[in-house]
Fold these 2 entries.
Entry 1:
Amino acid sequence: MPGDHLPSKGSRYEQLADEIARQIEDNVLRPGDRLPSVRQACEARQISPATVFQAYYLLESRGLIRSEPRSGYFVNPRATTRSLEPALSVPPKGAHRVDITTLVMDGLTLAADREIIPLGTAYPDPSLFPLDTINRSLGVSARQNDAWSAVNHLPTGNERLRREIGKRYLSHGTDIGVNEIVLTNGAMEGLNLCLEAVTKRGDSVVVESPCFYGALLALERRGVKAIEAPTHPRDGIDLSALANILETQRPQAVWLMTNFQNPLGCSMPREKKRALVDLLTRYETPLIEDDVYGELHHDGETPSSAKTFDRHGLVLHCSSFSKTLAPGYRVGWVAAGRFADDIRRLKFMASMAGSIPAQAALAEYLQSGSYERHLRHMRAALKAQKEALVDSVTRHFPHGTRLTRPTGGYFIWVDMPWDSTDALTLRDAAIVEKISVSPGPMFSSQGEFRNCLRLNFGHPWGTNMEQAIATLGEIAGRAPAAMIASP
Amino acid sequence: MPGDHLPSKGSRYEQLADEIARQIEDNVLRPGDRLPSVRQACEARQISPATVFQAYYLLESRGLIRSEPRSGYFVNPRATTRSLEPALSVPPKGAHRVDITTLVMDGLTLAADREIIPLGTAYPDPSLFPLDTINRSLGVSARQNDAWSAVNHLPTGNERLRREIGKRYLSHGTDIGVNEIVLTNGAMEGLNLCLEAVTKRGDSVVVESPCFYGALLALERRGVKAIEAPTHPRDGIDLSALANILETQRPQAVWLMTNFQNPLGCSMPREKKRALVDLLTRYETPLIEDDVYGELHHDGETPSSAKTFDRHGLVLHCSSFSKTLAPGYRVGWVAAGRFADDIRRLKFMASMAGSIPAQAALAEYLQSGSYERHLRHMRAALKAQKEALVDSVTRHFPHGTRLTRPTGGYFIWVDMPWDSTDALTLRDAAIVEKISVSPGPMFSSQGEFRNCLRLNFGHPWGTNMEQAIATLGEIAGRAPAAMIASP
């Protein structure tokens, strides 16, 4: 069975917390009700006080109950799990080696079958991209393709495209010179080069918990350990936990997705980004900022990035057009601050230069001025699809399921009760039903989040999607007896 | 001055050898003449017997003189330096750290100015490539671009293109499954991934002497040491020296360009390739085979590769379309034998996938059947240009200059007498005259080959080229007094 090597989920205190959460959900416990005292609970259930304390603490962090000094714990007024988001994550402490490639590649291979309902893929529906228009740009730029440019492209890449990227930074309030920008083969190559620029084998890097599996793959490849930091599903990494890690563990770098993080969908508010940069500056620790989803906000304006607040060249900002415009073109970039020369050198050593026609086509497209119109259309579609998915999961998944409601990107994170079907088992059962999902352990170096799924809402909503969610919800609730830990 | 940190060139024995070579060239010493005995030479010049022996040995290895048992050394019958090729290289022994990026990147930056006569570039003239036809293929494949393919390309890349590559292997006598082939961002990414698959930091890898600077850059990036092996300018690495290195130093891999090596232009004969594979198989040592020039033979048929003889999956064969068809597209591949799964995994970790439109355009072009016709045209042009360049260098460079006459590719290696202008000084003086060259030290981890240049004959011949070679020859002969070592 896949995942047999992973630690078992659902410790005793989580089971207790979920049981109480369900009583709240089912109105057995009502707002204002007092919970059994720790001693009562210990006696009634033959468990230790520590277990009860941990369970109450977890319920408190989820916003379901509150403690009142000298009175005990009480159910919160508007607490209903239906509307609740997952709690702040509590990853295992310390720096850990990463070994996740097989799990990730298996997952993506399963998701590549086009007969499958693609709730597990990493990309939105191709119909959201203006492929015809970009292909026309490819034709135009191919005809203009100067013969010399084909053989004398420096490692930094097409200058016209770098200018267009520089203009977009400026329009979002960040002033970046064209020469700081190095074009890469998608953001993934850029992120790998950044990691190479700021770490060596055996170093440690702080990531979110859960975090993008691409970050874990890059750490694994580089032989760098992951320190997973508590991360809030709405506003991202916990800065006091990060400060503590910086002080006590002195990691060589921090790698974050500051906007619409994959998989949580969380975004750091503007002032939190500023505080993050201040904190990192105090420790002279570089930030690898993966910002590939920033342009896909559902409302309002393109959010700031940590890069905006960087006065010391410590932020290596990576992005691409793969999520917003042209996935197959594999055109990304890095604006690496004080590390820009290193990135240029490493890019040259790694692959000399990027694909000229792809870069020229995107430059042509951006100059045509159609990008903003396309993005507006794409954002509106993603927002509508998110609402449909959230509504559907809320109706079909087991009682006590919590989920994120991101304001950008195209992923939600679904946190199922402890007695739901294990996420890896669920993944396998779903594939039989021709539905893909991304199981939680893909997003952790330690096989955590076995009760979590990442679902993609980048695809048009329809009855097939609604049916797929109903099927997933049914599988999630099919908890085999063997999987329920005895009390 | 660039290169000040490099070791001085022209040791005493090399000076003596060049002096005698010039006497032969000038007919002061004629075919059949007996050279002074070692004792006579020692006394006449106040030098040690070892110096004389080394000089005579060098002249012998260059084919200028021969030793006859109990009679002494004699000038060879048809010996004239005009027709001679450089000698087998004698690199410093041992494994060495590499630090060459700055030298290489400076060199390439200088060569990127299109006002400059491009004898130093790494590419042939863009006019040799069928850019219009490929751009039309790009247009055709863009219109056929299936939306799904844009988001579900696995790390191995476009299957149609991999099939076409597999067919070409087969037509050259090598049977490779489509699934062994992984498409990469140019050969350079592929070579880096191969190195990553078979080495770790601190390992040693055997390379040719001189060798392609891209190999040195990759070793530097990976923190792997270079063992430079004696290499013959006509038939490549010396197998007995390699056997000795394998036995005594146990390197983790060997990295060779088996056909039309950059910079020498040497090619291993078919049987030597077979012997190479046998030797490596005995030591279970993987071969990274860089074969980007194989298709650019000037006569006859596409040569075999070491891969052809590999029965144990030890050869990681890398190539690309960058030198033969579409430089700016950056489409290369690896057929990595027993390491194919590792390469697929590493490719995914490094950059997920390659550029879909570029891959699709090349698949379209190859299927159109125009590739062979284009190659025939390109080969004929390169052959004519080689003859013009060799003739011009022979007429304009200082007496005693030796050069290679490769039967493929588009580089010659020019080995100037020890009292010529230092190659790095020459490079700087040439740039002032708007001519680029690639100085010898770019091709060595130890700053060797300071009397050598790589010249590119991939550009149309004309009076400007002839004039450029005359200028280079004049600079080469301009030896400043300070540079001549006292006898």
Note: Residues 371-396 of chain A form the longest helix (26 residues).
Entry 2:
Amino acid sequence: MENTLVNSNGTITSGLDANNVSVFDRSFVYGDSLYEVFRTYDGRPFGMHEHFERLWVSAALCKMKLSQTQDHLKAECIKTIKEFREKNKSDVYCRIIMSRGVGKIGFGLKNLTTPTHYYIIVQSVDDFKSAPIEKGIRLQVVGRLRNDPRALDPAMKSGNYLNSLLAYLEAQEDGFDDALMCNHQGFLTEGTTFNLFYIKRGIVVTSPLPLGMLDGITRRLLIQFLAEKNIPFVETPFKKEKLYSADEVFITSSLKEVYPVTQIDRHKKKPGSLTLKLREIFHERVLAQCLKN
Amino acid sequence: MENTLVNSNGTITSGLDANNVSVFDRSFVYGDSLYEVFRTYDGRPFGMHEHFERLWVSAALCKMKLSQTQDHLKAECIKTIKEFREKNKSDVYCRIIMSRGVGKIGFGLKNLTTPTHYYIIVQSVDDFKSAPIEKGIRLQVVGRLRNDPRALDPAMKSGNYLNSLLAYLEAQEDGFDDALMCNHQGFLTEGTTFNLFYIKRGIVVTSPLPLGMLDGITRRLLIQFLAEKNIPFVETPFKKEKLYSADEVFITSSLKEVYPVTQIDRHKKKPGSLTLKLREIFHERVLAQCLKN
């Protein structure tokens, strides 16, 4: 891939030459891998510590014993980002993929001939100011359910992404930008790559984690921020009708930060004033935190 | 990998040299791939047509547009098997993996720079007679549920295998050979790589497909065979207690054919006479069918 840099277990190459994964890599054969995505602001990674802590949570849920230390992996990410930024001045998207390793076909871990493999992909990321805020994002509550935590826990950020991908394709076919998924009881969980919030009469609402979703780092920081600022907030299960009648709806993710939703199914919304205020203040806080590091 | 041959989009190499998958291959990044496994008897593939028909069913469920024709892929499988058997006299296991392709990170199909990629892995398979029938297989009904068809349909044979892998690891930790999974209503669905049958008072019982399982080709052929032989058979949902009190329990798969279960949770079983009879007759039929082709 053009304009990408790939670090495969310590060897950095251009994305164009990154054709070095084994056919027997378990991420390729079974999606038996974990990953994290974080970005930089002015070249400084944001929330890297939190992302690596969550990677270790995913590993526990996946019974995957990671061979590398957090410090080693962080240093490899920083090295790759630095090398990328020597040629590209833009901020970067950094994805780290941890595969359980390479081995003979078969589930047994005794088949693994090598320890966990890591792959780091670095590429440019869009500037905060370039996001088309007025357009926002148009979401469909799709028929496809989110994975049940008793089958495959969405709290684990893994290489098994077909559930979300198929939700995304369903929404795209119907002309939407992206998808929201419910659990088997009809309660909203999350989007394909983001968490969901709505605002009604000044109260900010989001779904509780046990319904089946990722413990989003932006979600987590925003909730902390709402508490500090005494902005009314509640975590409670809700169905799609609540979104239809909400005053404002927004999503959160490490790449989109706080971002307005402008349509839910057939119901149009305007980017709301509290959403835009949260977006601005949250972004300032992110920058301030990056400067401290 | 030793003693394997890999065909990557038409190029055949030893498994030892098969380090040529792109980091941007969607099977690697998202588990966004489909697969089939079949074997040969005396060098002749069994059920290849059925496996390819099912691959196309999986592709429809996954909204994946396959670029190659069935005839082309079959010819590539046969070519790879033939080349393997020039050096190895044993029968072979053949796995074909279809990846949605290679492209920039992101769900959008517009990111795909190339059409579907195929990878064929060929290796030796154990002889039918070498299976330790008396030992059979010891299975645990694990706590982890099978994927809900409304989230990710188990009828689709995909590269998202963590649900089954984690079920397998759970059973292994508890000292069992492999796992059986229930759906959210507590009804048995299937094992990690096989379908499930039990026999009570001469009646053969298995779970209906809509509960959430693969439409196994051995399962399908066995059901057809039971009908022809007027052996009483019923497809009905059942819970684990039915297995505990069953006279015989067995599994089916393309690799294990009909194979006795010798333990379910704490309940031991002996390989039953009807199971062994079905195993023998089924195997003879498989051989006869291979000779016809």
Note: Chain B is about 30% helix and 25% strand.
